[in-house]
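Hey, resending since the last one bounced:
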Amino acid sequence: MIPILLALSTFLSTLLGGVTALRNRDRLHRILGYTAGVILGVVAFDLLPEIFRTVSEQHMDPTLPMITLVIGFLLFHIIEKTIALHHAHDEEYGEHTHPQVGLASAVALVGHSFLDGVGIGLGFQAGQVVGVTVAVAVIAHDFADGLNTVSLMLNHRNSVRRSTMLLILDAVAPLFGLLSTLVFSLSDATLVLYLGFFTGFLLYIGASDILPEAHSKHPSKVTMLLTVLGVVFMFVVTRFV
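The structure tokens again:
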């Protein structure tokens, strides 16, 4: 029951983050600035260290996850440019939004949340202390996952209803991920390739999508400060939680 209760806690944490974004749509540019910082922090302090640790433990070629990182970055770049039909002029960036791009981003985050649940389940297979440690870390950053999911959907002109639906999917995904570990296990070699792919995806949407949009219509020092705070928040979460 302990893993199930912890997975339900991730559900509540994700919902709280999403509701925060929904109730502050008039200050979405500031939320986007904070979201960009959180994403940078996730990449620098969570995903990349996990990739390096697994590569070292499994004696893998580090080039492999870096290849999937590049694939993740370029694939979403191609998808976004194909769907959104962006113009070449930087000054028009604020208009470069399309619901399908936000939907694709949110679905990818749902997939990541599912693997968060897988991580909790595999942690408990290794031992209760390991499982609880992983679960606490997931709960802490799932608030940001909910925030990111709703921010991406709203930023690309999706409706509140659709944004809420994706938020709910993101919230329940860890529970299903946890339950899935009852019937299968994911090898470290496979997981590290996925982490590389997801890291490339996050790098793209953070640096090329979310951060420029945060400053396109409301450039301010407050937004820049919130970006820094987002990075600091993830540093604290990954180091002390």
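Confidence is low (pLDDT under 50) at residues 85-95.

Sorry for the duplicate.
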